[in-house]
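[Discussion] Sanity-checking designs against the backbone

I'm trying to build intuition for which residues belong where. Below is a structure token string of 257 positions. I'd appreciate it if someone posts a full sequence so I can compare it with mine line by line.
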């Protein structure tokens, strides 16, 4: 992935106790065409103060610092709810430790003897943050639309059938509190006497068949009614899921409360 276009402004916070090393990292980024504004911090207290005076587009951190490490700097960032990418710039870092750093949230790591790779790592980290923030914005718009829909909606995990999300219309119609609804599985929404047959039927379905059709459903107070459903496969917070919308609701069936 290429770095940002030449002339792209970049606010960088360098966590480093060696000013010469900090200057080399900054120069490597600037040489790639970024217009860099940089600040340096070498203690946790100074890092916190710099972040308070931010914001920054990127954090570069040495791995080993006097009395602390880049992972401490990363933890401080995330504890503040700051998603600024952090790239580790280090003299040596074994493969196992490098993998652990990435698992804990470091965007990348670059060896100081190979700073020509740093602009590429920076470009990738910035692009990943842009895509992540765009996804968050999209999900937030989707959630607002989901919540405001007048028809009852819920989302469930296709593997466990646990309810993952529910809108206000479904909560109000079924008579559950939101937390109660989110503790349910999809079978809990069905008429109890239909559950064994439903489970057998579900096991025979191909994986691409969704929860559509008419079925007997149940409210919290035991009322059983006919509901017409449409299901749509979606991804929900990284999980394979299905969204169900109740398009038509019949009256209570005889023999129910």
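Best answer:
Here's mine. Compare freely.
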């Amino acid at each position: 992935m290429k770095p940002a276009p030449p002339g792209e402004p970049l606010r960088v916070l360098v966590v480093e106790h060696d000013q010469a090393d900090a200057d080399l990292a900054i120069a490597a980024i600037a040489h790639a065409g970024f217009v860099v504004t940089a600040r340096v911090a070498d203690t946790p207290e100074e890092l916190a103060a710099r972040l308070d005076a931010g914001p920054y587009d990127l954090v570069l951190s040495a791995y080993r610092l006097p009395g602390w490490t880049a992972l401490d700097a990363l933890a401080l960032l995330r504890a503040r709810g700051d998603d600024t990418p952090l790239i580790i710039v280090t003299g040596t870092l074994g493969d196992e430790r490098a993998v652990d750093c990435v698992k804990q949230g470091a965007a990348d790591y670059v060896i100081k003897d190979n700073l020509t790779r740093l602009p590429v790592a920076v470009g990738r980290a910035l692009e990943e943050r842009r895509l992540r923030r765009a996804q968050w914005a999209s999900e937030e718009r989707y959630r607002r639309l989901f919540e405001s829909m007048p028809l009852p909606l819920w989302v469930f995990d296709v593997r466990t059938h646990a309810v993952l999300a529910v809108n206000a219309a479904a909560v109000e119609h079924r008579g559950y509190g939101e937390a109660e609804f989110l503790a349910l599985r999809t079978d809990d929404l069905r008429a109890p006497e239909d559950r064994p047959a439903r489970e057998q039927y579900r096991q025979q379905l191909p994986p691409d068949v969704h929860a559509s059709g008419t079925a007997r459903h149940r409210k919290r107070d035991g009322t059983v009614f006919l509901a017409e459903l449409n299901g749509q496969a979606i991804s929900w917070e990284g999980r394979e899921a299905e969204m169900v919308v109740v398009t038509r609701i019949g009256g209570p069936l005889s023999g129910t409360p």
